Amino acid sequence: MKRFILSLAALTFGLLLVGAVWAGGTKEKPSSGAAGAAGVTGKLVLATNNAPEGAGIKELLREWGQQKGIKVEVVEAPYSNLYEKEVLDLSQKTGLYDIVLLDDPWFTQFAENHWLADLTPYFTAINQGGLSSDFIDKSTAICKYPYASGLIYAFPAVGNAQMFFYRKDILGQYGMGEGPKTWDDVYAIGKKITDSGGGNMYGYVLRGQQGNPVVADFMPLLWSFGANMFNSDFTKVTLNTPQALAAVQFLQKLVSIGPPGESSFSADQLATFELEGNAAMMINWPAFAASFQDPSKSKVVGKIGYAAIPSEATVGSSEIGHWLAAIPAASKNKQAAFDFLEWATSPAGQKDGVLKFGNPPTRKSVFTDPELLKMPQFSYFPVLMQAIENSTPRPRIANWNEVENTFGIDLSKVVAGTMSPQDALAAAQSDITALMKKAGYIK
């Protein structure tokens, strides 16, 4: 397969200058002891997102640096900019970063192009065969390349998987206090809620913004209707099926019971609708769950329920969306980076991230921690743990970002009402096929 490399022409000159400063260094060998100040060249540098998921690992790194007497630096960026920064550094092997927090859909591109360090020697040096069995199996699987069966290139840092959020008090009036079981239930109840809501309460609210938001919202719906974007080996795009069409037509129905302007909504807008008490149902990420139980932010304290993704033609499945922590292949401080990540993703480290930042864990022992389960803000843990165990990853292809952005444009037009489901799928089928040929998946 041809490796997918993001075009970097516009920044080549600047990167060559950076490379001149940072290139060089010798290959590090794993050591069995914990890293100390003497084991670090310069500073230990983390690239992370400036969101709750990134705040936890940032603070843990600063704490660990103080304990070990190691200088640390944190480079923060918004989601899309973080991807660009990491691709630029890793692809040019400049060694600017020692640890990168990455969204799991980026992982295949990074691993396939040999931009990340294989962690096997570091686990071997501490007499471990790999990631602890305490991590949920699906969480471990997305840290391996090839998926589930290959070498380990990352730690599962933040346990995101989409959940179905609903108002227990409102759905309870319709006999569905445990949440809807099918998408037909979602629409039927949602329409009644919207019709009687007077423009202040909507039965279902979705993410329609182009790119990642609308695709992330739609994928569980696609799977529930028995469709997939690709065949099993990614040699064929499969969006020209009756099942895919049924899913996009149902997306249209959900838009009809939602608020105006959904084509611009991201996860943040959905959380605001929920916090203000204006949404009865939605799919969203667990990072927002703790805020729903915070009286200083929320008008729906104690009223939010969490459920599995509804089923339709097939059993519903959550989209897994972990944040992974990895070590760039060009890092000069691989041993110290590994020692930090072992510590940060330990049971104690993950519990600290849960308590301070509300970040969901990836370890079974933290999901089932009695102290945490007594706290109302973590009442969703049993549902999320099951969601991760039953989750589906986004296609493990190196050019997923391009594919997602392309599909997201067409889906967002459906949400906006400017493109029919048939035309959107036809355009996506053609455009994504071209991208897959360019990347070498389709001959």
The strands making up the biggest β-sheet line up spatially as: 2-1-3-10-6
User: Which shape, going by the Cα principal axes?
Assistant: globular
The level of helicity is: 40-55%
CATH architecture of the largest domain: 3-Layer(aba) Sandwich
Tally of DSSP β-strands: 10
Q: What is the helix/strand order?
A: HEHEHEHHHEEEEHHHHHEHEEHHHHHHH
Main sheet? 5 strands, mixed
Q: Which segments are poorly predicted (pLDDT under 50) over 5 or more consecutive residues?
A: 1-29, 31-38
CATH H-tier superfamily of the largest domain: Periplasmic binding protein-like II
Calculate Rg over CA atoms.
22 Å
Separation of termini?
9 Å
How would you sum up this structure, described in words?
This protein has helices spanning 12-22, 52-68, 79-92, 107-112, 120-125, 137-141, 168-172, 183-195, 212-224, 242-256, 267-275, 289-292, 334-344, 347-357, 364-367, 370-373, 381-389, 400-416, 421-439; strands at residues 44-49, 72-77, 99-103, 144-145, 151-152, 154-158, 163-167, 281-284, 304-307, 323-326. The chain is an alpha+beta fold and 443 residues long. It has two domains: 13-160 and 321-389, Periplasmic binding protein-like II (D-Maltodextrin-Binding Protein, domain 2); 163-319 and 396-439, D-Maltodextrin-Binding Protein, domain 2, CATH 3.40.190.10. It has a five-stranded mixed beta sheet. A three-stranded antiparallel beta sheet has the order 8-7-9. Helix 2 links the parallel strand 1 (44-49) and strand 2 (72-77). The protein is globular. The N and C termini lie close together (9 Å). 52% of the residues are buried. Mean pLDDT is 91; it is low at 1-29 and 31-38.
